[in-house]
Specification:
5-stranded antiparallel sheet; mainly beta; Jelly Rolls
Amino acid sequence: MTAGADGGRATLLTPGTAVTGTLLPTADLRHVATPEKAGPVDSRGGLFAFTVATPGRYRVALGSAAWIDILTDGKPVASIGHSHGPACSGIRKMVDFQLGRGRHLVQIAGSRDRAVALMVARLPDPPL
């Protein structure tokens, strides 16, 4: 599936389902919010959207190096955790966010790759 070029055309993701997203040249994008690390002018990125029905911790996993932002109402959400995938898993980067109900955007920037494995998933609630 091809990433959207702006927030209004963000490609819809289903949480818990992995996809291969085709990224667009940075010059063709209209970022909703300026990425903290946009990457070089010849890099790639794109926008994806997903809906949270159950508030909680959500993880965005990527198969290659890129900058990840989650945007809610056009504003970046602060990440609450960063990690790498297990060896030989194909997961390069994982970033966690605390999200409420509603529509959120995944904004990817600074990728050297044309396509990226991508998944958004809800994490279990921490034990009490």
